[in-house]
Design brief:
The complex is a heterodimer of chains A (116) and B (114).
Chain A: E1 4-7, E2 10-14, E3 19-25, E4 29-37, E5 44-49, E6 55-58, E7 61-65, E8 71-76, E9 85-93, E10 105-106, E11 110-115
Parallel strand pairs in A: 2-11
Antiparallel strand pairs in A: 1-3, 3-8, 4-5, 4-9, 6-7, 7-8, 9-10, 9-11
Chain B: E1 4-7, E2 10-13, E3 19-25, E4 31-38, E5 42-51, E6 54-57, E7 64-66, E8 76-78, E9 87-94, E10 104-105, E11 109-113
Parallel strand pairs in B: 2-11
Antiparallel strand pairs in B: 1-3, 3-8, 4-5, 4-9, 5-6, 7-8, 9-10, 9-11
Classes of the chains: A mainly beta (116), B mainly beta (114).
């Protein structure tokens, strides 16, 4: 079945440093979504990418979708303590049929800690 | 709107007991799903539904049942609880089951099976 791998599993940074997490799928995706989960909280949607090579920015966050639609990345510039949490990518397979288009597969997440 | 609500927030069961985790949404969303979250494993899809009366299995369906009799509710039933089902359970919903849609997560149910 489809697998979505995310690296690194953990990242510790000093406040002000940059941070990047990478997401790789074993199959071509129709879209990639990114979520953030604060400690003790629930995942919260950040963004969705659907086009090959797409790049989107949200303030200090930059999201990219690979040309082959099998990988993605999230980059945070100049991290702040408010960025602490787990970042997940999630994707739907491109060739999903029937009700399988409802299947969203999550990566394991990257846990980000930011030291002030 | 209350969004996605889940009850209970915490639950302790003994091995072999059964229970139902409740999930409801008031956003008229077609798509609903259940995930479990374990350390280092991310979110794994248990069951999902693309509309009332339609359910399908996700990645880890064994030991769980679901039904979707209304658009609003999507309960998850544990038939005979096992310690391996100790986890945090999240329910999520989105407007359409299409590929391009935001998922809204509930606050989660923290389940311990002794």
């Amino acid at each position: 079945g489809q697998q979505v791998m995310q690296i690194p599993q953990y990242q510790h940074v000093q406040e002000g440093e940059d941070f990047t997490t990478y997401c790789n799928s074993s199959t071509t995706l129709s879209n990639i979504q990114w979520y953030k989960q604060r400690p003790g909280g629930h995942p919260v949607f950040l963004i969705q990418l659907v086009k090959s090579g797409e790049v989107k920015k949200q303030k200090r966050l930059t999201f990219q979708f690979g040309e082959a639609k099998k990988n993605s990345s999230l980059h945070i510039t100049a991290t702040q303590t408010t960025d602490v949490g787990t970042y997940f990518c999630a994707g739907t397979p491109a060739n999903a049929g029937g009700t399988s288009y409802g299947k969203l597969t999550f990566g394991q997440g990257t846990i980000l800690t930011v030291h002030p | 709107n209350a969004g996605v609500t889940q009850t209970p927030k915490f639950q302790v069961l003994k091995t072999g007991q059964s229970m139902t985790l409740q999930c409801a949404q008031d956003m008229n969303h077609e798509y609903m799903s259940w995930y479990r979250q374990d350390p280092g494993m991310g979110l794994r899809l248990i069951h999902y539904s693309v509309g009332a009366g339609i359910t399908d299995q996700g990645e880890v369906p064994n030991g769980y049942n679901v039904s979707r009799s209304t658009t609003e509710d999507f309960p998850l039933r544990l038939l005979s609880a096992a310690p391996s089902q100790t986890s945090v359970y999240f329910c999520a919903s989105s407007y359409s089951p299409g590929r391009a849609d935001t998922q809204y997560f509930g606050p989660g149910t923290r389940l311990t099976v002794l």
